[in-house]
């Protein structure tokens, strides 16, 4: 016997369902025209009730829940009230949505109920009901134990409150970055580091399982660059409240159970991750998560009913850069005497660039290039590259290039790489590239520093692994000075002083692991700050405050630069 899928069964009765939904639409229109015609709403509710039974038989949980909400909304509309118009409009949209969903099930041959969560919440919001979770249709056994089991914490429970406050600050800085959409990747890394530290502090205590799952959720968001929806922002905020609970209750909070909805929602996000590396893989294995759909696929399915967007100005800026580079390459060849130059082509290029500059309101530069194009068009192929006119052309191109660079920068948040330059005879793109190179070198040095600290701990506190660290951090400090990042440089100076005096000096004892983690917090915080600069999505100076707090805890307070 051949098994019939719910989509196959749906095909047989789809025509009748469409007919019923069409009748519902007419009843709703009649009620909108005359709100006293309550029998129209009663007819809608009866039709919804019949459809609910059909959807239950078809095993379409999202359609079943939606039609149930629609029936309840129709009954509520019969009661009237000030919110009736809003609820009526939402109900009408829901009729259209469920029709599209049934077509989706037929087309894709799978129910994928998650695509209906947004529509369900719109109707529930209009009805004044609490919203359902993104993981509403996701099933998992939350009673499963953590695997592998965590190591026991060496930190006294009495220290949880003090350490938790600093780690909560770290988490909050990242959370604020996510809420402000400043730099999701760097912000999430900061939050993941905070939960990682909390996980180690709690060890095998019941609350430790929550931090472990939270870490996996954050790593999943980072690994697949998942969409940060409002529901996911709310989920991340819940972890902040749990950290606050740990700070306030201390040892008593260790034995507390985590909210089950928090765990379920977090595991659902882990299930959407395409990767199974590290802690993400641990959670998948522990909770027997099987591959089903990735977040990218889910968002693509949801986007079938939505539109996309983009920046026209960014596209124009990219086009201008290509045109400018083409003209510059032609002039470079002319300067090298490689080939005869047809300056009519150069003039045409300048005219095109001038026209495009006018489109983005760079009128002064546009007029300058158009005038130069008229002059260049009559140049001979052997025009002297040392002439005043040729140099004036080069200057005009540089002015236009810097204007386009300024336009691009105006579309991005202010950051420390692409800052304004006073000397307009210097190419902003070249200066930006130089700064980016320095940032990259600094980050490479910080990566070496973090590996050295990790090797120091793994090798049983063998100080040989730290021997080159002061020099590495000195190089990073110099790079930060070039970038005019005084606070970051001051943190690096404090880190170097701690390593030289607290770890490498003769007579010092073996450090505690917690101290090494705190040092790594400081180094990582500066690295996250540089990463946010590198991506031109600055996270702000708050991340440097975490580094300063970390060094103060180690007894090497950061001396901030004056001014």
Question: Key terms for this structure?
Answer:
about 575 residues, mainly alpha, Four Helix Bundle (Hemerythrin (Met), subunit A), 4 domains, flat, disordered N terminus
Please describe the topology of this protein.
Blueprint: H1 6-33, H2 38-57, H3 61-77, H4 84-108, H5 117-126, H6 160-179, H7 184-202, H8 206-223, H9 230-249, H10 251-254, H11 260-271, H12 278-286, H13 295-302, H14 312-336, H15 343-359, H16 363-376, H17 388-410, H18 428-458, H19 469-482, H20 486-503, H21 513-534, H22 542-553
Helix pairs in contact: 1-2, 1-4, 2-3, 3-4, 3-5, 4-5, 6-7, 6-9, 6-22, 7-8, 7-21, 8-11, 8-12, 14-15, 14-17, 15-16, 16-17, 18-19, 18-21, 19-20, 20-21, 20-22, 21-22
Structure, briefly:
With 563 residues, this protein is mostly helical. It has helices spanning 6-33, 38-57, 61-77, 84-108, 117-126, 160-179, 184-202, 206-223, 230-249, 251-254, 260-271, 278-286, 295-302, 312-336, 343-359, 363-376, 388-410, 428-458, 469-482, 486-503, 513-534, 542-553. The N and C termini lie far apart (81 Å).
Regarding quaternary structure, what we see is single chain
Instruction: Give the beta-strand count.
Output: 0
Output the radius of gyration: 31 Å
Order of helices and strands: HHHHHHHHHHHHHHHHHHHHHH
Distance N to C terminus: 81 Å
